[in-house]
Each structure stands twice: as structure tokens, then as C-alpha cells.
């Protein structure tokens, strides 16, 4: 029987109890149909701010290669295993890619905000040669220049992930819960949970 | 320009330099089209034995739920990130699922060997209620019994993963290599590597 409950306290607790492990901040986002799979560093503030959406500033350096296929893929799954507390989260949700061609002014603003929030060093990644293409530099690493006041370059994208279902497995307590969301009439997201066999 | 080289020494080195981190033994196997994604504990001996194939004894407890979709999926990708050495391996390859109905006597033998090689406790997992179905136990955890000399139960499967392409990214040296395999006339697997932009 499903009851009203959110998965967010569980994730916050897992992040907290694994905080001393650097790797606990990493999870993987899996995207069909291409098996594109990335390691991500999550922005935990988004949770603390109470925002359900997971936000990732960039596709790291391989964004330019995979951005096209990801644009046509609107769903993904985040797999997150916490080795200290033996907890696994599989979070299914909608994906929104915001590039410079986006028609939504607010989203373009979010993208710009994310650009200026990232270090100059990480911004410079987007001026480097396109990832996964043959290296023809012959070791000549000529440095790119970037004006700090310059807005996002074309290769820079913002990814938003909006969770819809969460499969939570606790291997210590040997318990498993499936959290499913629906929108209220007011447009709020309501979460229900059901206890399932681990 | 592609040159003959194998990715295995890189992986062995990464496993070695991250050995003190418990989580470095974990990676994720990603399977289309269902976004099925598991956390796995790798059997490192397989590498040391010089076997190219990654072998995983079981699908952990959720095998029974996802086994059907995985049976129809012959390719997968292993994503493995080493947080200490900043190395990422994305290994694409063929998947072989060996259940009790397999027609190959050698493979059935491998499955049986894997069954007896796992602890009685982990074998008992396969007698527990089917994972991800509603929990109707009402907390009454009746214990299953299992004869230690009894062979693999139906739910027990062996997964073999045979790498075909490896994308290696080193974020410390900022280098990236794509390793691609082909079979020699003698049926051996030959690996070529190409340096690409990180």
C-alpha cells in the first residue's frame, strides 16, 4: 500500500553519513538509447535549497560530442551507490538540456548564471579541441584566452534533471522502497512510497 | 594514428592505486534499452588470470526482475570512475547471460562453479521473495533453508561481459585514449589504441 512520503530526507541523510568520502559526491547519469554514461559531481546545494531538480552545470568536457543525442533523449536515470551506508538510489526522471538556442528567456538566464558561477579554468574547457576526436595537437598545448566578463560559449550547456521515480535500496536494513510522483492540481509534485521486497 | 596496445595494464594500475578505497572495487553496468543499471563488485582475479572477460557471479538480488530484459540485450557498458587517480573507464562489450536453461554444457558448468564459489548466505538471497514486488511479509521474516550440497537454483544466473571498446580518460594527465579490439585469424583478441582529445 502506497503512502505519502518523500525520498529526499533519505538522500540528504545518505549524503550526510557519507560526506567524509570524497567519492560519495559522485553519481552516474545514464541516458538511452546510446548508453551515454557520465560521472557527475552533484551540486548538493540544490537539495538543501529544497529544489527537487538535480542541476549539473555542464556535460564536463565531452558535452560537445554527446549533446546532440542527449537533446533527443528526454529521460534518464541517476544511479548512486553509497559504499559507507550501503544505500543505492536509482532515480528516474526527465532531462532538460539548455543550450544557447533555447527559446525560454528564464532558462537562458539560468544557463548564463551557471556559466559565471563556474571557475575560469572550467570555462576554458569549452574552448579546448572537441573531445574524443583524434588528437592532432602533437603536444603543442597552445593556451586559449577567455575574457572573464564574456558570457557562455556555444559548447556550454546546462542540464536539468527532474526526478519522477526513485528506487531506494538499503542493504544494511535490507529494505527497499519505490517512490512515485504525481502533480497536484496546484502543480506541486506529490510523492508516494511503497515498501517492496529488497 | 592507432597503435597496438591494451587497456588492461591501465585498469590494473588504477585498481592497484585505488585499492585502499573500498568503493574502487565497484562499478556500474549499463544495459539498453531499459536503463537497467546495477552496482557490481568486480572479481579482480579474472584480470589477474589474464582473462579479458569480466565475470560477475550474480545479478545480486534483483536478477529475477531484470533477467528477462537483459537476456534480450547483448551489449552493455561498464562505467568505472576512480576518484583517487581521476581515471575513468567506459568499457563497451558483449554480454552473455548463463541461466539453467543454457544449452552449452561448459557454460552450465561455469554457472555451477560460480554457485558453489559463493557463500551460503548469498545463495540464500535467491530463495527470498522476488525483488521489487510489494512486500506482503508483514515483517514475518521466515528463514529459508538451503542444502549446501544443492546446485544452483533457477533464479541464479552468471553474467559474462566481453569488452570490445574501451574509452580511457585520465583527468590528472588530461589524456584520453580509445582502445578498439578485433579478432586475429587465430581467434585471439587484438587491441589497438588511438590518442584522442580529452
From TrEMBL, chains A, B:
UniProt record, GO biological process: pyridoxine biosynthetic process
InterPro entries registered for this protein in UniProt: Pyridox_Oxase, Pyridox_Oxase_Alr4036_FMN-bd, Split_barrel_FMN-bd
EC number of the protein: 1.4.3.5
CC cofactor: FMN
Key word Flavoprotein present: yes
Keyword Coiled coil included in the entry's annotation: no
PANTHER family membership: PYRIDOXINE-5-PHOSPHATE OXIDASE, PYRIDOXINE_PYRIDOXAMINE 5'-PHOSPHATE OXIDASE 2
Protein name: pyridoxal 5'-phosphate synthase
Amino acid at each position: 500500500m502506497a503512502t505519502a512520503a518523500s525520498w529526499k530526507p533519505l538522500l540528504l541523510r545518505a549524503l550526510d553519513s557519507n560526506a567524509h568520502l570524497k567519492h560519495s559526491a559522485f553519481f552516474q547519469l545514464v541516458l538511452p538509447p546510446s548508453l551515454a554514461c557520465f560521472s557527475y559531481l552533484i551540486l548538493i546545494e540544490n537539495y538543501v535549497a529544497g529544489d527537487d531538480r538535480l542541476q549539473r552545470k555542464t556535460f564536463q568536457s565531452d558535452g560537445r560530442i554527446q549533446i546532440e543525442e542527449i537533446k533527443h533523449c528526454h529521460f534518464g536515470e541517476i544511479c548512486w551507490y553509497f559504499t559507507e551506508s550501503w544505500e543505492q538510489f536509482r532515480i528516474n526522471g526527465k532531462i532538460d538540456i539548455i543550450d544557447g538556442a533555447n527559446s525560454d528567456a528564464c532558462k537562458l538566464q539560468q544557463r548564463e548564471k551557471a556559466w559565471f558561477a563556474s571557475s575560469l579554468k572550467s570555462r576554458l574547457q569549452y574552448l579546448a579541441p572537441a573531445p574524443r576526436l583524434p588528437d592532432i595537437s602533437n603536444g603543442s598545448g597552445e593556451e586559449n584566452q577567455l575574457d572573464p566578463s564574456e558570457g557562455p560559449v556555444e559548447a556550454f550547456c546546462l542540464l536539468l534533471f527532474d526526478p519522477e521515480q526513485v528506487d531506494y535500496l538499503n542493504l544494511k536494513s535490507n529494505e527497499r522502497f519505490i517512490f512515485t510522483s504525481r502533480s497536484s492540481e496546484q502543480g506541486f509534485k506529490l510523492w508516494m512510497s511503497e515498501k517492496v521486497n529488497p
